[in-house]
Write the structure tokens for this entry.
Amino acid sequence: MAEHRSVPSPGPADEAVPGITTGAVARHLGVSPTTVRSWERRYGIGPAPRESGRHRRWTPRDVALIEEMCRLTATGVPPAEAARAARITHGRDEARVMEVRPASPTSRAAPSPSAPEPSATGRRSRHGSGLPLGDVRPECRGLAHAAVRLDARAMQVLLEQVIEEYGLVTAWEEVMAPTLRAVGRKWAASVDRYVEVEHLLSWQVSTALRRAAVSGPVPAGTQAPVVLACMPAEIHTLPLEALAAGLAGLGVPTRMFGGSVPAEVLQAAVRRSGPGVVVLWAQARPTASYAIARQVAETTFGVRGARMTPLVVLTGPGWAGLGPGAGSTRPSSLREALDVVHRMHTELVGRAVD
């Protein structure tokens, strides 16, 4: 099973290939066209200039280069360095680079090549936060204002209030996630500004989610846990932290292993914890791997003669468009993921009792 849709190997005939548009490349990577254009401008990884009047198209070689940059960045390499390494690997002329600026260190939800495409409409907030929020809840605008001001206390209070008033799912889907996406979009379009805003906002959101998880009911100690982990090259953990908090609120025991979990560590975690369900998160297509998902699904645990394997749930936009594969259950939202995992866990507990 392929890790993601492959692009034809580049070769001498590349120049004769019509190529694909920037929008198609963005969909392939799971990011917005604005983000791809930003990488082109900053790191010189776009297609070669075309003759006057012709639209630029990405050849297989161009796409392979940006995929390599995504892969390197997902492992922690700064974007500028990742772009340079990708250009060297693919023999791209360094003289084409018009602007290369160092990027900030990647954090939990930094707008790196694996950042999500914003779901907001892109209209500027009427209340002057400077972020592309669109039509959102007032609490979302309030969180954006506090983030831009770097007001950690205000963010903390607001996040606690929205979780208490609306519940975790609505707080995540209608307040936290839209604000995070708006900050990511602003970062991508403003030449490395707003990085400090993103870091502080991500930390406050993570803190609020962990507090919500701790405040949930204490699960029975005999229940098999749900293991949550990011794919080996995936660094974005906040959506998975939201799922962990939601499961805690439902009384489901979890083991959260966070970002960039090596494949062998995933298998060891399954063998040691004996989970009924394993949730694997991939933010972008380059980090999604059916091969690894199948390895996890086939990992056995339990006493000899009564070995078991876990159910695997694939979450995150990185799995979109890959076709059927290991772990056929692929919820598309936090609410759906909670329903799916909770139902699976409840059924497994029921079987154990019987």
User: Anything to note?
Assistant: The domain at 106-215 is CATH 1.10.1240.10 (Methyltransferase, Methionine Synthase (B12-binding Domains); Chain A, domain 1). The beta strands are 226-230, 254-256, 277-281, 311-315. The first strand starts at residue 226 and ends at 230.
